[in-house]
Design brief:
82 residues, alpha+beta
Length: 82
């Protein structure tokens, strides 16, 4: 997080999109997938997942976003997809 650069994030989002597409294609009918990233950037979490699910029969069942806090823990995003 200390080396964050917008150009690096764009590369990362493209890589995450490819990984997510592969994972979604491997889920059996009626199966579930947990998508999680250790980032609070919407482009890497909720927006990326929504884009990957557009036009598919899968949907987000549960989402969780967590911001970094002074009492410990980094931020992140997680979603359960059915």
């Amino acid at each position: 997080r200390w080396r964050f650069r917008p150009a690096g994030q764009r590369k990362l989002v493209l890589r995450q999109a490819r990984i997510l597409a592969g994972a979604l294609s491997a889920v059996r009918e009626g199966g579930r997938l947990v998508y999680t990233v250790c980032s609070i950037e919407r482009e890497e979490g909720a927006e990326l997942l929504a884009s990957a699910l557009a036009g598919s029969s899968s949907s987000i069942e549960t989402e969780l976003s967590r911001l970094p806090s002074p009492d410990g823990g980094d931020g992140g995003y997680a979603a359960l997809v059915r």
